[in-house]
Protein 1
Amino acid sequence: MINILILPGDGIGPEITNQAIKIIKSCIFYGYKINLIYNYIGGVSIDKFKTPLSENVIKICLNIDVILLGCVGGYKWINSPIKPEEGLLKIRKKLNLFANIRPIKCPFKNIDFLIIRELNGGIYYGKPKGISKQIINNIPTWYGYDTEIYNEQEIIRLLKLSFNLSLNRKKKITSIDKANVLYSSKLWRKILNYISKNYKNISVNNLYIDYATIELIKNYKKFDIIVTSNIFGDIISDQCSLLTGSLGMLPSISINNKSICLFEPCHGSAPDIAGKDIANPIGILLSLVMMFEYTLNNKILSNKLFYSIYKILSYGFCTIDMKKYFFNSKIISTNEFGDLVNYYFIYD
Ligand code: NAD
């Protein structure tokens, strides 16, 4: 029996998660027994429990095989003193999910590289942070501040994981930082240099984040594994979604040192299109592709789902966000897309 915790979250979260659930339920045809447990994260959890992530959910997470998350956030909570996004930061910290792997892959364009984003440290967690007031030029003035901070252990565990993953790929790592300005990046480079000595057959390259944004668009084929900090990984993965077609198409897996894995798409809750049945479910469906490969260790099922998704696109169907890339395609709804993928997943 595989126990899966489903946290649909806010905005388009429930709509896209429903498409993933169709596929999970179809796994029964492949001999799997699956127990689905549903719970809350983000804004819906604030509304229900006054917290974006309850202790009860954390307890469930610690005793579950897999967690599938939709997305959090929305207009409703913009002025709320507690933010839905705090639920994401909390689940990552409580489960010690230190690495977030985001594949940038498109078989139509021969694109295939990984972004490995540090997920437990950096400016999103660094202290001190806050908003305060002080007298500047004799005027009481508000100021906001955050701290970009990394310790040696956080950098080492992420880099070691990246080097080990690279052994089964093209043995090529690009580390993206801002070592010409930031001390946290200077330390990052020093440790990278040191660890790379143990992996002599892996080529290592450094890029500053500003120039990396250009290279990622101009020369994306030269990348294989990119490793970077929490904030840079967050930003460049949105940028790289343009290479594959749409922000709605990127999946991710977050991992810790134990066996807990969290699967989620890279995009946010897209409140501008929520409830319209037009969201692209590919990001969460590709997250399931990763779940089949890494948690169920079933490469056959993982490939089957991957090719079912791309079959629908090659047969000329897409959601509206992909229209400019597949301009001859028929636009279909989130639900129709999920149904078609599920059909090919079972019967093809
Ligand atoms: P977003 O990713 O939600 O949306 C950016 C744009 O991409 C929007 O135009 C949206 O319609 C579109 N988009 C995103 N996913 C799509 C999909 N699957 N199909 C079609 N179009 C899609 O980013 P945002 O607008 O900056 O943030 C909205 C909310 O989401 C905010 O509250 C933000 O904090 C939150 N957020 C959550 C996560 C997460 O849950 N992991 C990540 C990023 C942002």
Protein 2
Amino acid sequence: MTQINLKRGYLEKNKKPFVIAGPCAGETEEQLLETTIALAKTGKVDMLRAGIWKPRTRPGTFEGVGAEGLKWMTRARKETGLPVTVEVANTNHIEHALKAEIDVLWIGAKTTVNPFSMQEIADALKGTNAKVMVKNPINPSLALWLGAIERLENVGVNVLGVIHRGFSDFGNKKYRNNPTWQIPIDLMLERPDLAIINDPSHICGNRHSLASVAQKSMDLNFDGIMIEVHRDPDNAWSDAMQQITPATFNEIISSLVIRNVMGYEHKASQDLEESRKKIDNIDEELIRILGQRMDIVREIGKYKKANNTSVFQKSRWEEIVGERIKMGESLDLSPGFIQKVLKAIHDESINIQEIILNK
Ligand code: PEP
Ligand code: MN
């Protein structure tokens, strides 16, 4: 099997992302080969992708060519010398993909979301030496994403990395799938050992914002990028709006700016050190003040218990929010931010008083 050196820290080490590219779907052998050979010629691809089984949101659209397409993938590998990856969603797909010696399997967002499917997949992969990448679930749940990874790891599967492709969101016009960057960041903190790849194609759902989302992932120190490329994007059989030509792909990847990673091992400049110390002090102060505030909340809680008064006072809450938002604005703090912070503090205050009232 082809050697694949994707690991957490790839970007930092190689000063370039690990790039996975190819069409949304393998449509015909000719389409797949023409696209992947053009991609290989750019010299900017580390692995080729194509969907062979396509989980489509609504029936009646192109659902993939099925197992036959696996032969096309291995042919693309032979022509380009690049490893190949396909999506698998059930034991039947896995059987075929492993038999065809596909280098890497990926689990799609609509599969990661389902623990039954994930367990079935894990059981089918047990004892094989398959390498797997796990896309985030369609809903914004870090727990489900981690759960899917753990089900695979529990049976000894080699989880090569994870793919961030954004989350379904009602009424969001800007993105097809909201990136909600905090979730992949939390995943990086929780699992600093896993390589993480950004999929700007499924986040954007269009061509024009691909470059900025890809750049943002580089700024956040993602290890790689998975992007959909088609020889004739406008006439693609699936996800036509977001696919790009090999030439556009080349431009986008070439114009990515790779920043230096500021690990603690690097000597940060003196100024930066100073600013960080200031931030540390301010955070300490903030936490101390929050502690003081909660002490007062407890006193009020005792008063409310003694007088049998309800915890939540709507008029008081509205007054607090209104005043603090005004104050925040005078300090260049957005109303949304102040509201979020106050809500977190208020929720905690209510919890504390609830405990006191019901003691
Ligand atoms: C895909 O990569 O083509 C795909 C189906 O993506 P997702 O699972 O992210 O929807
Ligand atoms: Mn797609």
